[in-house]
C-alpha cells in the first residue's frame, strides 16, 4: 500500500546503500601538467648553463691570476738585476770620485737612478704580492695561508 510505503520510507529500519563513482577529466587535456614539465626542463637547462658559465669564469680567473703571478715574478727578477747593475754603477762612480775622476753631481745622479729602481722594485714586489693574494682568493686558499678556517653561522 502506498500509505505504508510512505510511512516506511521515513524510518531507520531499512538500511540503504549507495554507490558512486567520480571521474575527473581535465578540460585542458593535461596541458597544464605538460606546461609545468616544460617549465621545469627549461629551469634545469638554465641552471646547467649557469653552472657551465661559472666554471668557465672560474677557469678564466685562475688562468688570469696564474699569469699575473708569473708576470709579476718576472718583473721582480728583472728589477733585482737592474738594482744590482745600478749599485755597481754607483760604486764605480764613488770609486772614480775618490780618485778624482768624477764629480759629486755624477755620483748623486747614479744614486738617484738607484733609488728610482729600488722604488720600482718595491712596487713590483707589492704587485706580485697582490697577484698572489688575488690568486689565492680565486682558488679559495687564502684563509689556509694564514691558518684560518671559515665557519658558517647556523
Structural class: mainly alpha
Unreliable stretches (pLDDT < 50, length at least 5) are none
Please state the CA-atom Rg, rounded to the nearest Å.
43 Å
Helical fraction:
over 70%
Which range does the strand content fall in? Answer: under 5%
State the order of secondary-structure elements, H for helix, E for strand: HHHH
Query: Outline, from the CA principal axes?
Result: rod-shaped
Mean pLDDT over the residues: 86
- Largest sheet descriptor: none
- Distance linking N and C termini: 80 Å
Q: How many β strands by DSSP?
A: 0
How many distinct helices? 4
Topology:
Elements: H1 2-9, H2 31-99, H3 104-139, H4 142-145
Helix pairs in contact: 2-3
Give your account of this protein's structure:
Helices cover 76% and strands 0% of the residues. The model has no long low-confidence stretch (mean pLDDT 86). With 154 residues, the protein is mostly helical. The radius of gyration is 43 Å and the shape is rod-shaped. 2% of the residues are buried.
Amino acid at each position: 500500500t502506498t500509505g505504508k510505503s510512505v510511512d516506511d520510507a521515513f524510518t531507520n529500519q531499512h538500511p540503504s546503500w549507495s554507490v558512486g563513482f567520480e571521474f575527473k577529466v581535465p578540460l585542458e587535456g593535461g596541458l597544464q601538467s605538460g606546461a609545468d614539465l616544460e617549465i621545469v626542463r627549461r629551469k634545469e637547462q638554465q641552471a646547467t648553463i649557469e653552472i657551465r658559465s661559472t666554471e668557465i669564469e672560474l677557469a678564466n680567473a685562475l688562468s688570469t691570476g696564474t699569469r699575473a703571478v708569473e708576470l709579476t715574478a718576472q718583473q721582480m727578477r728583472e728589477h733585482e738585476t737592474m738594482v744590482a747593475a745600478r749599485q755597481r754603477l754607483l760604486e764605480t762612480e764613488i770609486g772614480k770620485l775618490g780618485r778624482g775622476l768624477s764629480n759629486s753631481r755624477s755620483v748623486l745622479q747614479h744614486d738617484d737612478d738607484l733609488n728610482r729602481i729600488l722604488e720600482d722594485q718595491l712596487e713590483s714586489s707589492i704587485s706580485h704580492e697582490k697577484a698572489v693574494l688575488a690568486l689565492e682568493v680565486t682558488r679559495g686558499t687564502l684563509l689556509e695561508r694564514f691558518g684560518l678556517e671559515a665557519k658558517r653561522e647556523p
